[in-house]
Amino acid sequence: MPTLGVNIDHVATIRQARQTVEPDPVAAAVLAELGGADGITVHLREDRRHIQDRDVRVLRQTVRTHLNLEMAATEEMVNIALEIQPDYVTLVPERREEVTTEGGLNIVGQQSWLTEVVQTLEAAKIPVSLFIDADSAQIEASATVGATFIELHTGRYAEATTEAVQAEELALLDQGCQQARALGLRVNAGHGLTYWNTYPVACLAGMEELNIGHTIISRAVLVGLERAVRDMKGVIWGRHGAIESQG
């Protein structure tokens, strides 16, 4: 079964709402790891709406599992990654007006620039993951630019309003995962996954890591972060009963 990367951006969102010092995402990362997180994910956005530069630097020094830095493919962010040396980088699309990432990165449309970015980071021994839709052309282009991983965007699966549509989207994720593996890419997934829809994605053959944030932080408000992370680990491993009994 895949490992769990816990995205702690929304801890910083609460802090930035009041421009204060709490809650501290660094402390959240410690609690997430105590709860069984296999990795910590943060998105350093260009507008710094939640995670700040200092957070990433301190997390690099304190995270004991692995640190996944999500970022736009810009010169500024590449330089920050080269300085901080996260365990791996996930390149994501970014628009300032969006509430959260709305879709996958267009690798086909910017293949030359992304090849340069990937080569720069990989040369510094920072593996690169590309956050993309489960689209055959985008997967093939991801292999062409030299990425180590892709992260399949699970938003359409998570937002499906009927079981039939959800099954169709899950099948597309499965096909994308198998195509990527055949091309030598390693596969992660994330976006919109919850305690109620994660398990089928976790069961996809070859899936290595699920990056999940909002649903875990939401549950943590009520039950605490360590327990919220443990609960999600249970979901990934098919232990649904504990979640259902807790409400």
Automatic annotation (TrEMBL):
Gene Ontology CC annotation, any one: cytosol
Annotated site, Transition state stabilizer, chain positions: 151
Keyword Membrane appears in the UniProt entry: no
UniProt-listed InterPro entries: Aldolase_TIM (IPR013785), PyrdxlP_synth_PdxJ (IPR004569), Pyridoxine-5'_phos_synth (IPR036130)
GO term, biological process aspect, one: pyridoxine biosynthetic process
Keyword terms, alphabetized: Cytoplasm, Pyridoxine biosynthesis, Transferase
GO molecular function, one term: pyridoxine 5'-phosphate synthase activity
HAMAP family: PdxJ (MF_00279)
The protein's name in its UniProt record: Pyridoxine 5'-phosphate synthase
